[in-house]
Amino acid sequence: MGGPLQYKPMPSPVGTLRLVASGQGLAAVLWENDRPGRVPLGAMIEGTNDLLREAERQLSGYFAGAVQTFDLPLDFRGTDFQRQVWSALLDIPFGETRSYGDMARSIGRPTAFRAVGAANGRNPISIIAPCHRVIGHSGGLTGFAGGIEAKRHLLELELKTLASIAVSRAE
User: pLDDT tens across 59-105, in order?
Assistant: First the structure.
C-alpha cells in the first residue's frame, strides 16, 4: 500500500493538529488531545510531502477565513457505512449545520441517527470532512473529538467569514 503513513504537526487556533497522509490521499486530521484508538491508522512516520504541505496551506487559509472548500484527495479508512457518513459530511455547506437525523436521512437511513452519530465521532478527517457542522436535533452542540470549545470556534469562524463576505459584497 505504499509504506507507512506520513504525518506532519500543524499549529492552529484550535491546538496542534496532526495531518496524516497515505499514498492515496489525506487519511486524517487528528486533534492534539485525540482519544487513543479513535482513529486506528497503523504505523506512521513524521515527514512531509506535497499533500501534507497542501493540506496545511488549505487549512491555514480556512482558519484565516480565505478558504471555504477544500480540494484534496481523501483516503477515508473505515467501514462502508462510516465512509458513506463521512462522504455525506462533505455535502454540508460552509457555515451551515445539520442534525444527526438530517444526516441519517441524507444517506437514506432515516432511523440510523445514532449510528450516524457514532460514525461521526470516528471521522478521521476532522474540519475538512466537517463533522463540526453536525449538531443535536435541538440545535445544541454535542460531542466532538476536538472538544466542544473547538467545535464552537469552528462554527463561529465560519459564520464570521460569511458575515465578512456579505459586508464586502454590500460595499
Answer: 999 999 999 999 999 999 999 999 999 999 999 999 999 999 999 99
Q: Are 44 and 20 in contact (CB under 8 A)?
A: yes
The C-alpha torsion from 166 through 167 and 168 to 171, rounded to 10°, is 120
Concerning whether 131 is annotated as a catalytic residue, the answer is yes
Q: What is the pTM of this model?
A: 0.91
Contacts of 171 (CB under 8 A, 6+ apart): none
Given the C-alpha cell 458575515, which residue does it identify?
Answer: 163
Would you say the C-alpha torsion 111, 96, 78, 145 has a positive or negative sign? Answer: negative
Q: What confidence tens digit (pLDDT) does each residue in 48-57 have?
A: 899 999 999 9
Burial of 168 per CB tally in 10 Å (0-12, 13-18, 19+): exposed
- Count of Cβ atoms closer than 10 Å to residue 137 Cβ: 11
Closest CA to 78 of 118, 43, 124: 124
Residues listed for the chain = 171
* Whether the Cβ atoms of residue 48 and residue 56 lie closer than 8 Å to each other: no
**Band of residue 167 on the pLDDT scale cut at 50, 70, 90:** confident
Choice among 131, 134, 150, 154 that is catalytic: 131
